[in-house]
Each structure stands twice: as C-alpha cells, then as structure tokens.
C-alpha cells in the first residue's frame, strides 16, 4: 500500500503507539490500515466414488488441477463461499457438509478451509476460471499436477479416511516450501 484509501496521502509503514506490528499508517488523517490473513474456502465434492476437480484457466498454477476454492467474500459464511466457488468454477451445485480441513499457511498469510460436499447432479461444466472440470477416482487423481499443497493434503486425508471409514476434522499448518522457486 502506497496511498491512504481514506484521504489519498502517502502512507508510512511503522509500528503505531501501543501496537506490536508495523502497519500502514496515514500521517494526514491518522487512519491505520490493518492487513489480516485471508480465508480461502473450497469444497471436496463427491459423486459416488469420484471427486470433482477443476483445471485452472488462471494464474497462479494455470493448467493445474484443484478443488473448487477461492477467497471468501465479505458478508457470506464459509459454507456459502464453498458453494459459490463450486458454482463459479465448475458450474456445479453441491450440498455442503462438514468442515473437513483447516490448514494455516502463515508465510502467505492465508488460512485454507475445505468442506466435504455432495454433488447434487452431473450438470457441471467449466466456469470462467477453469479449462475443464471432471470427476476423478482415487487411482486417476493427477497427483503431479495438483495446483496447491493444501489441496493435495486435503485429497490425501480424504482417501485415507475413506479407506479407514471414519472422518475426523483435520487441522494442520503448512511451512514454506523448501525452495523459493
Ligand atoms: Zn489518510
């Protein structure tokens, strides 16, 4: 942030009095522009023994596969966000079930939440942000072409839990990748 969104003056980056973190502070109007982690919410939607995946038409990770997921909007619930992202990316309708994974990604200031869900019908197709959308059995999952580590983790939890026949909630924290590449 370079300019105050309240008054347009150049902002300073410093620790405000009584605070512990540096913030963007406006020297003209005094506004402190707090920045907080973002929630990424998605759905692991099942149809019989298959899972709905989308191949990304946008960066980052163009051409890689993901669960339908995206940034939560203001004034919606997390379950609504999961259903909305599935509608937008896969033009698919789901019944949202239990919250399944919560993965902290502190080095990029994000929290990823994945719900289990049930696909309501087979009338899906690629949305604006997807190249294609398809249902995958476990043996057909393109593990080497999964877009994000949190999505791969959620899928592995899912197939492991399905083998064991129980469905605990999973929370985890993801360290930075080994290389910055
Ligand atoms: Zn200002």
UniProtKB/TrEMBL annotation:
<dbReference type="InterPro" id="IPR015797">
    <property type="entry name" value="NUDIX_hydrolase-like_dom_sf"/>
</dbReference>
<keyword id="KW-0378">Hydrolase</keyword>
<dbReference type="InterPro" id="IPR000086">
    <property type="entry name" value="NUDIX_hydrolase_dom"/>
</dbReference>
<protein>
    <submittedName>
        <fullName>NUDIX hydrolase</fullName>
    </submittedName>
</protein>
<dbReference type="GO" id="GO:0016787">
    <property type="term" value="F:hydrolase activity"/>
</dbReference>
<feature type="domain" description="Nudix hydrolase">
    <location>
        <begin position="36"/>
        <end position="159"/>
    </location>
</feature>
<dbReference type="InterPro" id="IPR029401">
    <property type="entry name" value="Nudix_N"/>
</dbReference>
<dbReference type="Pfam" id="PF00293">
    <property type="entry name" value="NUDIX"/>
</dbReference>
<dbReference type="Pfam" id="PF14803">
    <property type="entry name" value="Zn_ribbon_Nudix"/>
</dbReference>
């Amino acid at each position: 942030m370079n300019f105050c969104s309240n008054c347009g003056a150049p902002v300073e980056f410093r620790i405000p009095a009584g605070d512990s973190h540096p913030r963007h502070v406006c020297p003209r109007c005094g506004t402190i522009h707090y920045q907080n982690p973002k929630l990424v919410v998605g759905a692991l939607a099942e149809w019989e023994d298959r899972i709905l995946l989308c191949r990304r038409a946008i960066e980052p990770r163009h051409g890689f596969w993901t669960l339908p997921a995206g940034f939560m909007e203001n004034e919606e619930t997390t379950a609504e966000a999961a259903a909305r992202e599935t509608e937008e990316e896969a033009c698919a309708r789901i019944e949202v079930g239990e919250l399944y994974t919560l993965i902290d990604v502190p080095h990029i200031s994000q929290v990823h939440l994945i719900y289990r869900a049930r696909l309501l019908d087979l009338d899906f197709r690629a949305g604006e942000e997807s190249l294609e959308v398809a249902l995958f059995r476990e043996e057909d999952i393109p593990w080497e072409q999964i877009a994000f580590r949190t999505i791969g983790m959620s899928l592995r939890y899912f197939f492991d839990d399905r083998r064991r026949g129980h469905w605990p909630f999973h929370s985890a924290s993801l360290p930075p990748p080994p290389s910055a590449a």
